[in-house]
Amino acid sequence: MSGQVDAGDTLLSVEAALQRILTAVAVLDGEEVDTTTALGRVLAEDIVAPFDVPPFPNSAMDGYAVRAADTAGASPEHPIELRVIADVAAGATQAVIVGPGSASRIMTGAPLPPGADAVVPVEATDESWKQAERPLPERVHIFRPAAPQAHIRPAGEDIRQGETVLRTGARLRPQEIGVLAALGQPRVRVVRRPHIAILATGDELVEINAPLGPGQIHDANSYTLAALVEAAGGLPLRLGIARDFLEDVRQKLHAGLAQGADLFLSSAGVSVGAYDVVKAVLEAEGELGFWRVNMRPGKPLAFARIGGVPFLGLPGNPVSAAVAFEVFARPAILKMGGRRELTRPRVEVMLDEPVRSDGRESYLRAVVTRREGRYHAVLTGPQSSGVLTSLVRANALLVIPAGVREVPAGATLWAQMIDWPEGIF
Known about the structure:
By secondary structure, the protein is α/β, with parallel strands linked by helices. The chain folds into 4 domains: 14-28 and 193-336, MoaB/Mog-like domain (Molybdenum Cofactor Biosythetic Enzyme, Chain A); 32-53 and 157-191, Molybdopterin biosynthesis moea protein, domain 2, CATH 3.90.105; 58-153, Molybdopterin biosynthesis moeA protein, domain 3, CATH 2.170.190; 346-417, MoeA, C-terminal, domain IV (Beta-clip), CATH 2.40.340. Helix content is 18%, strand content 30%. The protein has 7 helices and 27 strands. It has helices spanning 14-24, 174-182, 221-231, 246-258, 277-285, 318-336, 389-392; strands spanning 30-34, 47-48, 58-59, 63-66, 80-88, 102-106, 118-121, 139-142, 152-153, 164-166, 187-191, 195-201, 205-206, 217-218, 235-242, 263-267, 287-292, 295-296, 300-306, 309-314, 346-351, 355-356, 361-371, 374-379, 396-400, 406-407, 412-417. It has a 6-stranded mixed beta sheet with strand order 15-12-16-20-19-17, sandwiched between helices. A 5-stranded mixed beta sheet has the order 7-4-6-5-8, with no helix packed on it. A 5-stranded mixed beta barrel has the order 21-24-23-25-27.
């Protein structure tokens, strides 16, 4: 990518734009972190089991470790009496051998003593197992026979030594964290979280703790984008507000490079206005790829490089910036962080009202519900790009294909889910 491409009136399709962005970003390198902080991260190495899990045969029940042959023919009418020789608790290390005619009381998870090849649940004995304190009896009566290996978890039942348990690219959920703990792995190598530099531009913007003057508004975009970046697994680096001057934009972009940004996100400054200076800086110092996409909201979209770092310039209107992030930036950040599933889930919905578009591929804020086995969608109200609360009320983006201008009530479209409310799905 060099110079300026796809300028003028050329419009890229959403899919073509997304593929260019994804082609231009790569999975980041790995880093070692504490397993306790690895939730949601992506493995950068295979995990091979150094030992069996469990490492020894153990009881799956509270009961008695026995020789199965000694319990043959046991019934409530003709119980088998065995001599109790020990009490084996979880974590026990004492040497106990279960010989003919004997039994050892055993707790769930306790190692199976030598000589035993089955466990009889306490419910199948005459011990009063409901008592809080259970003195060790001298003898126990068995009311039903035990098959060999009954209620025993063999060594390696879960994981075998040398087995590749988790593979590179796996996202670490709570269950994967549990497996790492079971394998005694306090640290793990994962894909590094992307550092995303966020730049807000505009003379009208002030920080959220500043009083508003005439013609001023609080900077909402950089806070929205920072939260979206964090939700996607990135580390946001807020560069502050750049005024509509080339040098101010240039300085802040260089500050992002100095902080080790893996991707730049900016809001505003990439359209065709007289004060859209971000685009001018990119053309002067970087490589501008394209800046017009056949999309609503969010047609002005710059993709570039500066200092070798990818740059994604989002529109200035708050809804346009957030939607463009969902469609383009979020998949790029997920890829950089090692994720394989890059897009939100989509469901087919029936429209409860007619919807209109201008012919561009449109992403309308909507509420999706489920009724009588079908998904239904209604818009959240006015679809102006400045109405940020329309996203607050939405759980989905209703996708109207390019070239379609009107869709009647009762027709079906795809909805890209941005939230999955409990009780609906």
